[in-house]
């Protein structure tokens, strides 16, 4: 089974590229971020034409997340994070599908820092940690996948100095991410590519794609119950180079089916 994630950076503008990727790679589950559309305008019919059913949590012009499944409809568990009732950003969607608890996230960017946006990012990460602890307590096979907007280590960026002042790699951001790992979650991409140098984002500016000046901010964290089933993890880098591409490339994990218990 393959579970993938793609920050599409505007689902209307890049729908042909998204459908192309789905049909060519055929993940069982696909999590989307930055769909940037309100709920009423989500193109669910286009996905149904190629066999995918979706749930989504939209927002006009900004943010927005969705979960697609091949041949079945995800069962929604939760949208949004508890802790700040006034927070109306569409950044979190959780569902059960194919025997997995799948959480799709679009974590706040946090720039400019310091400032209120960075403070919001850190609060959001702590709220996420609390929800992940609740999921872990259920002891279900789970993964939290999407755009974390965190560069975990120096090996995950093309030039440390170029990003030194960015919210994505501040010590506070990295510490918050590390706490998730210390809670028992496994970073699938890091596990399979421990030397780093694996990018998931290349800016549109300054020829970043052509010069391979990227960094890793899209992650898949697996619960202990699911980490034992991890077969592989990677990035569909080539899709970043296609016409009218997102500035992110899709990431994916492959999982073996659960062992069948004997009668």
UniProtKB/TrEMBL annotation:
- Site entry: Transition state stabilizer: 149
Q: Which Gene3D superfamilies match?
A: Endonuclease/exonuclease/phosphatase
**Necessary cofactors:** Mg(2+); Mn(2+)
In chain numbering, where does the site feature Interaction with DNA substrate fall? Answer: 248
| Keyword Magnesium on entry | yes
What Pfam families does the database record attribute to this sequence? Exo_endo_phos
Recite the UniProt keywords alphabetically.
Answer: Hydrolase, Magnesium, Manganese, Metal-binding
Domain of life of the organism encoding this protein: Bacteria
Query: What note does UniProt attach to the cofactor annotation?
Result: Probably binds two magnesium or manganese ions per subunit.
Instruction: Report the active site residues.
Output: 106, 147 (proton donor/acceptor), 248 (proton acceptor)
* Annotated InterPro entries: AP_endonuc_1, Endo/exonu/phosph_ase_sf, Endo/exonuclease/phosphatase, ExoIII-like
Binding residues for Mg(2+): 7, 34, 147, 149, 247-248
Which positions fall inside the Endonuclease/exonuclease/phosphatase domain?
A: 4-248
Q: Site Important for catalytic activity: which residues?
A: 218
CDD domains reported in the protein's UniProt record? ExoIII-like_AP-endo
Spell out the NCBIfam families in the cross-references: exoDNase_III, xth
Query: What is the similarity comment for this entry?
Result: Belongs to the DNA repair enzymes AP/ExoA family.
Quote the protein name from its UniProt record. Answer: Exodeoxyribonuclease III
